[in-house]
Every structure is written in C-alpha cells, then in structure tokens.
Amino acid sequence: MKPILALNAFDMNDVDVLGGALERQLRRRAKLFGAASVLFYDRPLEIVRGEGCWLYDADGAAYLDAYNNVPSVGHAHPHVVEAAARQLSQLNVHNRYLHHGILDYAERLLGTLPASLSNISFTCTGSESNDLALRLASSFTGGEGVIVTEAAYHGNTALVTETSPTSFKKGGPPPRVRVIPAPDSYRVSPELLSETFAGNVAAAIADLSNSGIRFSALLIDSIFSSDGIFADPPGFLRAAADVVRSAQGLVIADEVQPGFGRTGASLWGFQRHGVTPDIVTMGKPMGNGYPIGAVATRPEILDAFCARYGYFNTYAGSPVAAAVGQAVLDVIEREQLMDNAERVGAYLKQRLSDLSVRHRHIADVRGAGFYIGVELVDPLDGLPAPDLAATIINQLRHRRVLIGAAGRSGSVLKIRPPLCFSTVNADQLVAALDEALAAAC
Amino acid sequence: MKPILALNAFDMNDVDVLGGALERQLRRRAKLFGAASVLFYDRPLEIVRGEGCWLYDADGAAYLDAYNNVPSVGHAHPHVVEAAARQLSQLNVHNRYLHHGILDYAERLLGTLPASLSNISFTCTGSESNDLALRLASSFTGGEGVIVTEAAYHGNTALVTETSPTSFKKGGPPPRVRVIPAPDSYRVSPELLSETFAGNVAAAIADLSNSGIRFSALLIDSIFSSDGIFADPPGFLRAAADVVRSAQGLVIADEVQPGFGRTGASLWGFQRHGVTPDIVTMGKPMGNGYPIGAVATRPEILDAFCARYGYFNTYAGSPVAAAVGQAVLDVIEREQLMDNAERVGAYLKQRLSDLSVRHRHIADVRGAGFYIGVELVDPLDGLPAPDLAATIINQLRHRRVLIGAAGRSGSVLKIRPPLCFSTVNADQLVAALDEALAAAC
Fold first, then answer.
1. Which residue, of A173, A188, B85, B410, is most buried by count of CB atoms within 10 Å of its CB?
2. Taking the domain B78-334, which CATH number applies?
3. Could A314 and B126 be called an inter-chain contact, meaning their C-beta atoms sit closer than 8 Å?
4. Interface test with B, best of A157, A164, A308, A313 (most B CBs within 10 A)
C-alpha cells in the first residue's frame, strides 16, 4: 500500500524545475529536516497569515482553506488568541498545583460526554491521547489485541504507529494488531454495512483468540477519515460495539478527527452512531492549534492503569491549555458552528453531488457536516483513481483552493474546512472543482 | 522502589483535615481527574499568577520558585508572551506548508549543536522526543536493547515509560531495557566514577548480548536529575560513550532536564562531558511552557527510520512553536541567563555547602549551574533520609519557598529554579532551608 500522504507530497526530485527563491527555500528545508520533511503540493505553498477560512501566501494571494481542521474555529480567531495571550501573561505551569481553570474546563468537557466517562486526563497531542488510551485498555482488560481499520491513522508514538497501517512504508502492524476493512459505504450496501463491519470485528476477535492473543480494544475513528470518510448510515457502528462488549473488550473512540462539532449534528462523532465508548480520545481541533489533547474514561479503567503506572504530562492541563480549550468551546457555541457545519456541510455535499451528474469520475459524495469525501474512479472500469485525485488537488491549489486526499488508495478528495466555512465559500470550492475536473478529465 | 513523586504528593486520605474551600476544591479535582491526580505538598497550593521567579497564590501570597525548570526564563516572561501572542494572531498551522520561522529556528538550534547533528524533527513534548529517538536508534542499529539508569525518568509514552524505572509502581522495565546504577558521585570516589559507570554500561551490553538482545542505545540525562543529580567530575561520561560506540550502539542525550543553559557553562548538558551524542532530545524549557520538543540527529539515522515509517506531528514545528522557541533563546542570550546560572548557581551551591557545617543531615551538595542536589542522610548511620527530605520540602512550602525531591529513595532535595534566580533569591532560599532544618532535626 502506497502511503496516502505521498500522493499529495512534493517530490524533492522536482526541485530544479521550480528555481529561484522557492527552490532555495526548499533546499534549505530539506537540509534541516532531512528525510522526514514532507510538503504538500507539486508547488509547495509558503503561507504567512491566516484569518477565518483564508490563508495568505508570501505574495499576499488568498487561498480558500477547505483542508485544515486543526484551526477549527477559524485561523487566528481573536477570542482564542486573546484567551491564550491573557493566560500566558499570567501563569503557564504544570498541574501539580491547584488551578480553577483546568477544573472548570474538565467539568465543561466531561459535561458533553456520556455520564459514565467521568474521569479525564489531559495530554498535549492526539498521539499522546491514543497512546495512553491503548495502555488504559490493556491494563483494564489484560489483553494486547487491538483492532483497527485498514487505512487508519491514529498518531505517531511507537505504540500508536503500530495501530496506524498508513504509517508503514514497509511491512505493517504486528500480529497483535488486526487490520479489518473499513465500512466502505460506497462498495457495501447500506442494509449490509453494519452487519458486515460487525462481522469483520467478530472475525478479528476470533482470529486473535486463535493466535493466543487476548483482545483488548477496537480503536476507531467514527468518521473513518483516512480510510476514505464513511459516515452513513448513522448507527452502523452499534453492532460492532456490541460485538466488542460481548468479547469483554473496550471501544476506544478516537475523536481527534470527528470531535468538537465537525460532523455537525453532534459534538462527538460516536454520538451519531448511538454508541457509548469506554474511552474517548481528543486532540487536533481542541486548542485551535495550541497543543492540547485529552483522554476521558470510566474511573475503574483509569484505576487499573494507575495501580501499575504513574502518569504525568508536564505541559498538559496547564492554565493556558484550559483557557484556550474554553475559548474554542465558547466560539463553537457563540458562533453556532455545529449548526453551521451541519447546514453548510449539507449544502456543500448537495452541490458536490450535483457535480457528479456532469463529471462521471465522481463516483460518490459522502460524509457528515464538514467532513466530506468525494470518491474519484475511472468511469470505464470503476476502479479508484488516485492519480486523478492528486491532479485535482494540485489543480485546486493552483486555483487557490486547498483540499487533501484520503482513502486506502488515495482516491478520495478530503474536504474538511474550518467550521466557519460559509455557503459562499462552498460555492467557491465547487466552482473551482468543476473547473479542475473539466481541465483534468 | 517507592515512586519518587509519591514522597512529595498530597495524600487524599488527609483531605478531611484541610476543610473549607481547599477541601472542596481537592474533592472536585479528585472526582474529575481520578486516580491520575497528583498534587504537590501536604497542603496543596493554588497558584494563580507567576512573574520571574515568583509564584502567587489565590490570597496574593508570594512563593519563591526554586523548583520549576519549564518556565525556564521566568514565569510569564513578556518577550515570550509577546512573541506567542503576535504569532498566534497571524498564523498557527502545521508544517506541510513552507514557513521561514521554523527554518530560522531550526538553523539557530542546530547551530548550537555538534555539526554532525544536522537534521532536526520537531515534536510537542520531551516524551514524544524520546519516543522518536528510541525508534531512530532502533531503526539504525537493528537493536532493541536500551540502557538507562535506575531512577531515570524519560517521559510518559508506552515506549518511553519502559525506559523510565521511576514510572513503575509495580514491576519494572522489560528485559530489553537494562537498568544500571547512576554515577553516584557521593558514594563513588571521583577517580573511579567514570570507570565504574563505563563498566556498568559494558556489563549491561554484555548482559543484553548474552540474552540474545541486540544493543541499540544508552539513553541518558547527563545531569541525572531524577537519579539524584550527579554532575561531577565533568567528562565522566566520555568513557561510557566510548563503550557504547565500540559496541555499535548510539548515545541518546536526553536534554529535557539539563538543556537550554540550565547547567550554566554550556547550553547543553552533554557538552560538560565532552561527549558528542548520536541523538539529542529536547523538551521542557524549550518553549517556557508552550509545548515544544525536538530531536536532532545525523541524517543517516533519520534516513534509516524514514525508510520504514512516515513521521508527522500536527502541532509541531508550527509558526507559533518557532516564534516562542526563538523568544526563549533571545532571552537566554540577552539576559545572559547561562552566565547567571553558572554564577548564582555556584554561589548557591557554596552557601548550601556552608549550611552542612551546622546541619549534619546534609551529606552532600552537588550539581551544575541551576541544577543542585542536597543529599540528606541520617547522621547516625549515613543512610538516606527520604522522610526528612519530604518534611523539609513541606516546611519550605510553608515558608513560601518551593523545591522538590529526587534520588532513588527521594532523599535528595532538588533545587532547580528559573534561570533568572538572583543571589538575593539564593539567600532567601538558604535562610528558609536553614530554619526548616533547625525545626525538623
């Protein structure tokens, strides 16, 4: 499997073609960051400023951002900036001292979750959250077996990389991690989706058991972001969750992608499916770019872990993290961004579906709220069209609209704008995509 | 081994004694954070504001901070706050777009390191840095065997916890992690220290080999902070590094504690020892509280890892991380904080040594710059006195001076103030410690 990121990554072998200041900057960066350096697009962007749903390059050109879900309430949102600046000027220290800020924030966050999840541990990143979550599950269940979907990405620590098939350039996850097909709503009919997915989970649990590996958890991103974005029908995850419970396993909802209102109707992705997870992990949009993560769980699960290990995270749960986190929730509420994601997301999805009438390469438009996938195929044979997806993404970049790729083969256009994206922005995106498809096909 | 932290942690069983608003806040916190909640001191502090080397509680009382090394250039330093606020208001996004800020910062940081370490990867925390470093070493050497000191703490991810003996409440590191005695300069004579430590490293490598485990790396904090602070004689690490190299292993310098000028004479702790590490990891003081970490290494080491895995860290290497990191380096230079750490650190160490004449429980005063350890023993039998250390730390807290504990048994007072600590502050600390020792012994 070709890593998804590579499909939209700049290839340093092409650096000569660019010339000038851009070439010099790319060479400088490659020297400093070495083999780990990855940049988007065939002509990388130098971004110097952001505001709302817009990013600006060094020449002042404006790019419509339909990609970035971390600055979720909008780039450089003044309420968040002010909250950070104010708290930074007062106190930013670890949480082995009392501070009302982090208690208020913890209460507010837990208030949005099922009552059973009454303990929270703060981290700095979604990766740290999933790393801790996997260990909580393991301590509680006594098992090491984890089930993930085949193109999942859950983060970058050693443990979490093992549960992220897309991070492997060679080989794949170890035997204790079982990889199952994503609930592909384009290729499996809605009536069979829930049953098929639950069946795959059950088969993986049986397979672990046959290998003498005790089952611990299903680790799942309920919007299946890197698998290609599968959202419907709502509720299809319930049967799989039931299978997990009947095998004494835990459900870990990785809310790093679908959380904080992105899917529109609910604050958390798992709520669309009527599932109550045992552990919920948070990251990316939580601090609008300030590094914050968290893990919420039941007290008995945290107890099992803490009986064996201490856990402390220096930067996490600081007064600044709390102030920023609160400000993000404030903006989501005040600006009714969930409602916006639901309403404008539905409008955008409809307009993208309309495009498919004229563009036969669009096989499917799907998603929830502001997490939308557009599946591109070759109309002659129906096979995924990852090269076309890469072409379209770069065409859009040259038309100053930013999106990304997802899916096992990278054939799905990933549209995931800041939550303040408007219907006007949606029209701009659709017009640019219309042109790009006409030019490319 | 009793976890070190527990020695200075508030015990929730004592909550009834406190009463009033403090008791209510503690119960509220325990309910939210559960078993993972840890607070310092027998009467936890509610800190609401910080400035320079001072912290202020909810009643406005000032506490002299001789503990916190994360807000390293001083609490709420205006230059750092302004840099963060300015950049937050402009752009805070991942580094798959070009941004001059992170390139400038990367160049400045690499300019302080040995020329061989020419690649840098940014992370958000010291834990993420050490997690990545261990995997870099493993990819490059093909080995999994790691050597750490017996009371080391290197962070909180699954992989890094395995190399942190102090994080285990039950059991200990897995067989691939070998735990060796710290270079205890109090109990081993200076002439033998280098040879003894190198001998322990060699024995651990042989032991790994006998167990069929290929050696990968020595992971070392060159100030041995949680082991009890062992700094002298400078250069004692060289022999151990030579042993590691002759066994085709790598030296990972964990600079999360000694880095960024804390030890006074050099920016990096390993420089005191004349050692060139293969990998250097950074964290805590890097952003004065803003979550930043980094890993610097040789290109061929990063290449080996990147041939197998992709690595991306969403929040890391952002324009804000760069601006904050630059501001911290600015302050270290402009306010000559390394010189201050060396000069005032030496003064403080001398004054603490003078105290030992009157207080026979002080067995040893040691350290470098602003990382100072005061070893407390029972004068009758010379055995470590962890209970006395806990008493003194709490006595000082009631005298409004904040320090911590270190060492295998927690018998070492850990003194590690922000780098702006003055000789006046040093006198205040020594006077309070003098009183506390008189009262306790």
1. B410
2. 3.40.640.10
3. yes
4. A157
- Of all helices (H) and strands (E), which one includes residue B15? helix B15-18
Q: What residues in B contact A313, CB-CB < 8 Å?
A: 125, 127, 156
Which of these CATH numbers, 3.90.1150.10, 3.10.450.330, 1.10.1790.10, 3.40.50.10330, describes B4-73+336-440? 3.90.1150.10
CB contact under 8 A, B5 and A91: no
pLDDT recorded at residue B331 = 98
Q: Which two tokens stand for residue B152?
A: 């080391």
Q: CA-CA distance, B324 to A125, in Å (whole number)?
A: 18
pLDDT digits (tens, 9 = 90+) for B243-257: 999 999 999 999 999
Q: Is A35 helix (H, G, I), strand (E, B) or coil?
A: helix
pLDDT band at A2 (very low <50, low <70, confident <90, very high): very low
CA distance B354 to chain A (A): 32
A368-419 pLDDT tens trace? 999 999 999 999 999 999 999 999 999 999 999 999 999 999 999 999 999 9
Q: How confident is the model at residue A8 (pLDDT cuts 50, 70, 90)?
A: confident
Chain A residues lying within 8 Å of B106, measured CB to CB: 32-33
Q: How many CB atoms lie within 10 A of CB A379?
A: 14
B173 touches B163 (CB < 8 A): yes
Centroid of chain to Cα B257: 3
β-strand pairing of A401-402 with A62-65: parallel
- pTM, to two decimals: 0.98
Q: Which residues of B touch A88 (CB under 8 A)?
A: 76, 80-81, 84-85, 289-290
Question: What CA–CA distance (Å, rounded) separates A321 from B285?
Answer: 17
Sheet harboring B362-368: ordered strands across?
A: B362-368, B371-376, B412-415, B404-406
Question: Which SS3 state, helix, strand or coil, does residue A219 take?
Answer: strand
Domain ranges of chain B: 4-73+336-440, 78-334
Residue ranges, chain B, pLDDT below 70 = 1-7
B90 contacts on A by Cβ (under 8 Å): 48-50, 76
* CB contact at 8 A, B306 and A161: no
**Residues A99, B48: C-beta atoms closer than 8 Å:** yes
User: What average pLDDT does chain B have?
Assistant: 96
